[in-house]
Amino acid sequence: MLSWGSQALEDDFNKQIIVDADRQQVNIKENRVTFYNNVVVTQGSIKMHAEELSVIGSEEKGSEVMIAKGEPATFYQLLDSGKPIEAEANEVRYDLKTQTLTLTTNAQLKQEESLVKGKMIKYSINKQEMVAQGDENSRVTTIFLPQQLDELTPKEDQQ
């Protein structure tokens, strides 16, 4: 998006992850925990809400993947600038190692007045990079304010 010049709160990724839900199911063989109904995930300023959340573990600590499903599932995080990032989709995939969100079906990503909608949005939190795709029935929609273009334009030094 156009106004995203700030990094995520680095401290968030060092905090513990807390998951609250009505029910959970563990599959040790597959290294998967699935939470059901009214799922809330908290890690620092990060908040996720879903009807179902699968956490897939790996051999490497900190490489878990969370797959949240809902209508919609949501993701929220504060940037170091104090501006929030808000995301929602029918499926929100959060890769902890790469700090990447992949939003699938009815995807939208918002910061202040900027909004991107599409079939799929992939957003790298730490790199501040985003790719959005539509499909044969819908295109990508981007909404921003004109002054946000000024923020992207390099200013010549005043002498």
Automatic annotation (TrEMBL):
User: What function does the entry list?
Assistant: Involved in the assembly of lipopolysaccharide (LPS). Required for the translocation of LPS from the inner membrane to the outer membrane. May form a bridge between the inner membrane and the outer membrane, via interactions with LptC and LptD, thereby facilitating LPS transfer across the periplasm.
Q: Name one GO biological process term.
A: Gram-negative-bacterium-type cell outer membrane assembly
PANTHER family (UniProt xref): LIPOPOLYSACCHARIDE EXPORT SYSTEM PROTEIN LPTA (PTHR36504)
Question: Quaternary structure?
Answer: Component of the lipopolysaccharide transport and assembly complex.
Compartmental location: Periplasm
Keyword S-adenosyl-L-methionine listed = no
Q: Which GO terms describe its cellular component?
A: cell outer membrane; outer membrane-bounded periplasmic space
Which is one Pfam family of this protein? LptD_N
Name of the gene encoding the protein in the UniProt record: lptA
Tell me what this protein is called: Lipopolysaccharide export system protein LptA
Q: Which family does it belong to?
A: Belongs to the LptA family.
Q: Where is the Organic solvent tolerance-like N-terminal domain?
A: 19-128
- In its UniProt entry, the species of origin is given as Agarivorans albus MKT 106
> What main location does UniProt list?
periplasm
